[in-house]
Request: fold
Amino acid sequence: MDSILVRGNGALSGAIPIAGAKNACLTLMPATLLSDEPLTLTNAPRLSDIRTMTQLLQSLGAEVASLQDGLVLALSSHSITNFKADYEIVRKMRASILVLGPMLARYGEATVSLPGGCAIGARPVDLHIAGLRAMGAEIDIDGGYMVARAPKGLKGARYTFPKVSVGATENLMIAAALAKGTTVLDNAAREPEIANLAECLSAMGVPVGGIGTETLTIEGVTSFKPIEHAVIPDRIETGTYAMAVAMTAGDVELIGGQVDLIDTVAASLRAAGVTLENTENGMRVHRTNGALHGVDVMTEPFPGFPTDLQAQMMALMTRAEGASMITETIFESRFMHVPELARMGANVTIHHQSALVRGVPKLRGAEVMATDLRASVSLAIAALSAEGDTMLHRVYHLDRGFERLEEKLSACGADIERLKG
Ligand code: UD1
Reply:
């Protein structure tokens, strides 16, 4: 397994291109399963999770061509021959469950392994199952697989999510596109990736109402249009680099980054003393004068503070003047970065769902272990401002979600290199 060596060396300055959103691309790709019509996705990120979804779709019989060095994905599903998403692929990535809805809607059957993914809590799939059952599916769990059937096809239904779930909202939206009649989803997730999917379905010819609200209405259709659709910029990558810049008191333009995709995060960063402003090509982040201030943050479904930026925010707060209370409400074990940050000298106390971070004047480089995707990058951010060398082990998680991290940071003056395992 590769490692990353970071020598803390001060302010980042320059420009960083922001890639397409991993989480948007992962939900758009399975929409190919709805019909024979070609689906072309532009602005795709070059990440191992995208390769895993490619592999999964190909294992079902879909064609997925990666063009223009992976920036464009050409998908088509005219010859689906296999209705089983195998454990070997699904265990690598939880988003694999998103093939369940469209397969079931189109073919009336699908068998999907229960997913793996990041080790950040139980992450059940009950909402996906309950929602599809409300649409007429019969689903059993057998041998670690969800075995789903809808012999008479799926029917539109009204379903209220008892808890907001991004993945379950997406799965039901895609399934509803091919269900008979109208589906109304209440308490649906409102993440920008959901709006990106809704716009993709609309372009395919599926009437979708309530985009951006917590009630989505989807009219099932029987035929689809071939389309080309752009993946939105990655707001998690944007927020991560904004925090890296803030951490090193740097000044960087995030090309393609959009402040309006990270409003809540931007508000927290501004309160901490960071400046964010729109530019012609994206946004500029700088902290050129003054200290960082401790700010309290609580993760919540969109438009709240994203759980996927919690670890990075904590890394930043380890160097703030004063204290910061960071509360995680989405996942139950998402503080695995804390003992690793402590190895670098951070002062963090966990109490139930909250972490009290008392800022320290400096962090020191150490050997640390990447645990999940976002935790790994939080350690890289901490390392950029630490004194001495940090060796980040087990970085395969990073490659799931961050495209060319070392290259992007090096271009802004960071001393960072990958050591092949
Ligand atoms: C997606 C994102 C992930 C992000 C998360 C929350 C993708 C590919 N991944 O994950 O990066 O951290 O949203 O913003 O888009 N839950 C249930 N039952 C279910 C489904 C979920 O109880 O059937 C719970 C989960 O355990 C979790 C919460 O609901 O506590 C939110 O999970 P969910 O929004 O579904 O996350 P994902 O879609 O898996």
